[in-house]
Design brief:
This protein is of the alpha+beta class. It folds into 2 domains: 2-36 and 158-229, RNA polymerase, RBP11-like subunit (Gyrase A, domain 2, 2-Layer Sandwich); 40-149, RNA Polymerase Alpha Subunit, Chain A, domain 2. It has 4 helices and 12 strands, in the order E-E-H-E-H-E-E-E-E-E-E-H-E-E-E-H. Strands 1-2-12-9 form a 4-stranded antiparallel sheet. A 4-stranded antiparallel sheet has the order 3-8-4-6, covered by helices on one side. The longest helix is centred in the C-terminal third of the chain and has 26 residues, at 238-263. The model has no long low-confidence stretch (mean pLDDT 93).
Length: 264
């Protein structure tokens, strides 16, 4: 098995890579672990002290739950794996407070205060509610680690994959027509010959529009190579997500192996 990075845009939190010599079962397992098993920090409970804003408590609580928080996986445990057995302690929960001090105006995620400086909103300017003159908001929230399979607020990001496309160019009478037929512009003409742009091949979606342009084109895919695309939602960077997913994959296989030995 081989992995080759295509793009690693740390500023935008995006990563794409090729997974070679694998099968669809492995690729889909990796995708599901990333989306459903990698834990992140999110607000689970909210206790309102004051709320005279235009929004109901439930709406504000829902907005708070969907705010992505920078996550430190080394300092916190999943509730079900904590020594407190999920009852709540400093190793699996973090208290947060929100008490806007500027009066009227938009309340942003950056105004949420915690005792742990490493756990903070990934995007400071996410709006929560607009307060008018005389309105007030005060609350205490409890954040904890969770998994995307239980609620989307704990999902670390977006991940999907596709087969690596293979485009074989045969006899082409009108190369200009083929270039115009492709909705993703993956073709170009060099020395009067139709060729595939090397930096655009992976954009091909196998739509076969080029094959309908009166040209001998074969559009296939390699079922042993997969192109993965990831976009982090800010809790963890793409490298942390992948490393944690691989660790979870290994731990799950070890757990299965141990259970199988006990069953004999």
């Amino acid at each position: 098995m081989e992995v080759r990075v295509l793009e690693n845009n740390k500023d935008e939190g995006k990563l794409s890579f090729i997974l070679k010599d694998a099968d669809v079962a492995f690729a889909n397992t990796l995708r599901r672990i990333i989306a459903e098993e990698v834990p992140t920090m999110a607000i689970e409970d909210v206790e309102f002290r004051k709320n005279s804003s235009i929004l109901y408590d439930e709406i504000i609580a829902h907005r708070l739950g969907l705010i992505p928080f920078k996550t430190d996986l080394k300092s916190y445990n999943l509730p079900e794996k904590c020594k407190c057995k999920g009852e709540g302690c400093a190793r699996c929960q973090l208290k947060m407070t929100l008490k806007p001090s500027k009066g009227a105006g938009m309340v942003y995620a950056s105004e949420i205060k915690t005792k742990d400086s490493s756990i903070k909103p990934a995007y400071d300017k996410m709006p929560i509610v607009r307060l008018l003159k005389g309105q007030d908001l005060e609350l205490e929230a409890t954040a904890m680690l969770g998994r995307g399979k239980y609620h989307a607020k704990w999902a670390p990001g977006l991940v999907y994959y596709k087969y690596k496309p293979i485009v074989e160019i045969g006899d082409v009478k009108n190369p200009e027509a083929v270039v115009e037929s492709c909705p993703l512009n993956i073709f170009e003409i060099k020395d009067d010959k139709l060729v595939v742009s090397k930096d655009k091949l992976f954009s091909c979606t196998l739509c076969e529009a080029c094959a309908d342009a009166d040209a001998d084109m074969k559009i296939k895919f390699d079922d042993r190579e997969f192109i993965f695309y990831m976009e982090s939602w800010g809790q963890l960077n793409c490298k942390e997500i992948i490393n944690e997913a691989v660790k979870i994959f290994d731990d799950t296989l070890d757990e299965f192996s141990d259970a199988l030995k006990k069953a004999k």
